[in-house]
Design brief:
By secondary structure, the protein is mostly beta strands. It contains no helices and 11 strands. The protein has strands at residues 9-13, 19-20, 28-36, 39-47, 53-61, 66-68, 77-82, 87-94, 97-106, 111-119, 125-134.
């Protein structure tokens, strides 16, 4: 059975290694993953390209099953799966349609690579690639 341990903790963004398909990557940011039983909480704080501070946090059961989600207008259910010791994936759906996929990968270099994939309003797919280094 895969272990979540190496994902846990606070990660500091490496903006110079991050690539966004739409817009500029944040100037800085942190990505924290905290475990509480079978739930994981994701806490993201960043300063966007315009210099504005942002915050987002959500929790989900990591069991590979879809669960109701009410914290965002873009999703009504979310599934979080620990696919291996190195891959943690989430899929968010709205009315049965996949709206967002996030793949978190622990690299051989000890970094956390987060790839968020979605579609623009016209249906064009895009993805944002962020890279983080463990800070604790």
């Amino acid at each position: 059975m895969p272990k979540i341990d190496n994902f846990l903790g606070k990660w500091k963004m490496l903006p110079e290694m991050s690539v966004y398909a739409t817009g500029e990557p944040p100037k800085s940011g942190t990505y924290e993953i905290v475990q509480d039983g079978d739930k994981l909480t994701f806490i993201m704080d960043w300063v966007d390209a315009a210099g504005e501070a942002k915050h987002m946090a959500y929790s989900e059961i990591c069991d590979g099953q879809f669960h109701p989600y009410t914290d965002a207008p873009i999703a009504d259910e979310i599934c979080l799966t620990l696919e291996s010791d190195h891959i943690l994936k989430s899929v968010a759906k709205l009315a049965g349609e996949v709206k967002l996929t996030a793949i978190r990968e622990l690299t051989a270099e000890g970094q956390l690579k987060v790839v968020m994939s979605s579609h623009s309003a016209d249906g064009t797919p895009f993805s944002h690639h962020s890279v983080y280094q463990k800070s604790n």
